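Recap quiz, item 2
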Amino acid sequence: MHPFTANTAESVSSLGELRLIAAIRRWLGAASPKSPFGIGDDCAVLPPSRHSQLLTVDPVVYGEHFDDAVPPRAVAAKLLKRNLSDIAAMGGHPRAAVIALALAPTVNRRWLEQFYRGLAAIARTYKVPIAGGDITSQRDGLTATLTLVGESRGPRFLTRTGAKTGDWIYVTGALGGSILGHHHRFTPRLAEGTWLAGRPEVRSLMDVSDGLAKDLHALTPQNAVPSLCDSAIPISAAARTLAKRDGRTALAHALTDGEDFELLFSVGVRADRNKFESAWRRRFATRLTCIGRFTRTLDPDALNLFDFHGYEHLR
Amino acid sequence: MHPFTANTAESVSSLGELRLIAAIRRWLGAASPKSPFGIGDDCAVLPPSRHSQLLTVDPVVYGEHFDDAVPPRAVAAKLLKRNLSDIAAMGGHPRAAVIALALAPTVNRRWLEQFYRGLAAIARTYKVPIAGGDITSQRDGLTATLTLVGESRGPRFLTRTGAKTGDWIYVTGALGGSILGHHHRFTPRLAEGTWLAGRPEVRSLMDVSDGLAKDLHALTPQNAVPSLCDSAIPISAAARTLAKRDGRTALAHALTDGEDFELLFSVGVRADRNKFESAWRRRFATRLTCIGRFTRTLDPDALNLFDFHGYEHLR
């Protein structure tokens, strides 16, 4: 569905601001609590909490993160879930979201309705109240920016730093080929993230959003390199499909395609890996793979990540 | 300064993502703390707090909130301060901000540098760490969306609801003509807001951002109307200047021009107004005006707000 319309009567500009805001509150329904805990005041209010608060922001932009082929409900799902993935990447769980929309006057009301109904559905699924927002005109296009507040579940949250030379490198799920549908159908690894934050053998955590080859650098300790076993990299079926189409290898897709939204983390060198992996399997059906370790120099038979490049945002 | 350039060498696209992010961290300097309390991880972390948390989001969009006549530093100041005004409007104070930028590849690097240096300066002034953000390409234009987390100073925060029939209506500062410069030079009323939250006679609070005539409806109790004394409305010098130019009255400008960013609040009917106003004057130099009260029916000699319309966002 095309987000824009040449027919003024079908566009958001024909609604006017007050009626549009009233419509949005109707579309969001129970996903948006009453003010002061939801839409309707100068700020949304979150009750006090004794845990560390987590804050992340990510947009979806027409022509960049979605196009006419992605249904508006899927655009909304992607917007909320990519922020949820950032909360999962710290081992946290979500508290509330606010959304700012900048939209051309030609945006189709029906597109916007489906977008908000999709947002409401996914917000209910993950129990994230849509607590506020803003709507503004812009000349062209459609940019939706969502900010998510989360918090750590216990006293501990995980960051990208903490891995040491010798640590094992793990990744969830399978990688690559996200463009074929995973980029809006993925499940943010929230339960896995909070579980990892409670395991002392896990030393660092992040999500894979720009491709493993690019993102893994952020987890790599100083004076170390990631030595990956190429046969261990979990390659998605979509990456293999893409490889058949374009002649690149499935491995290259797995390492460099963006928007996997899987968790990438390190486990201390002295950890009991069998015990850790058994505990994971008792708790989750999610695939878990040890793909290598951080070493002082690159193992002679390891994969050289410098041969691959991840997703570049500003082209 | 024009935000865009036809010269590719001067544009953000020539920098590439990693160098641009490194440049932004340099431009922000001390305004952006180290991760996990600032930029550099999947989320920014805020330490636990025993107060209610406040959450607000507002963008600035090229062609809508600023144009070539507004210096980039002023655009950044406006972006942060309009969010600060929302925090002030609940009687809170700010904790941390995240900023999402969606920008055309043709955005001028020098414009962006001045924007971030301006943001850093105003963030230091108001002691708001810039804790994270996101940068994305979009086909055209420039949209900067800032989300601000704040908190109540004490156990109490104020909302738009709470006024009762008979209550007095107060406004800070002088209104109208913001377009002549106040829209980016204003001072968010943070100290005033937290002080008001500590005064039991104050029953409701908001900021005036779309013009008093439009915004006052949100403060008006059910089954009441605002009876305003037209000679009491504080009219800014800029509103008088505009009136001379365009033939509308200065009062019309004061009531309907957007972006005053002043505080509007109600004081209980049984409060000692003299005591309240004296306490204000001992504490603040900011002008304070009682402009009327909420009555059951419109006083015969009161101003009829229905004759005026505030700023409409979606045209």
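The radius of gyration of chain A is 21 Å.
The domain at 168-307 of chain A is CATH 3.90.650.10 (Phosphoribosyl-aminoimidazole Synthetase; Chain A, domain 2).
End of item.
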